[in-house]
Design a protein that fits this description.
The protein is α+β, with helices and mostly antiparallel strands. The protein contains 2 helices and 4 strands, in the order ββββαα. It has one domain.
Length: 86
């Protein structure tokens, strides 16, 4: 099975080209999704890692993932992503 890249800010799978963020020259940025990165900048530059974790939990719950499982996934994934490395 081919490895699927994920957004290095939120963890969203980057499956379709339409999901990929853009650089300032409008070329694709394969590290980030369109919701996190557009025109070479993060869409929410003041977002904290903890806020991103809470956003991830909320999105997972909308996808019918139980909150405890969503929290576990977010806490195990988001801190390891490139944007949130100290």
């Amino acid at each position: 099975m081919p490895k699927v890249n994920i957004c290095q800010s939120c963890g969203m799978p980057l499956i379709k080209e339409a999901d990929i963020g853009t650089n300032s020259d409008q070329s694709q940025n394969g590290e980030y999704c369109k919701f996190c990165f557009q025109n070479g900048e993060f869409t929410n530059q003041n977002l904290t890692r903890e806020e991103q974790i809470e956003k991830g939990i909320a999105i997972s719950k909308k996808m019918w993932i139980p909150e405890d499982k969503a929290r576990e996934i977010a806490n195990n994934t988001i801190p390891k992503l490139k944007r949130w490395q100290k």
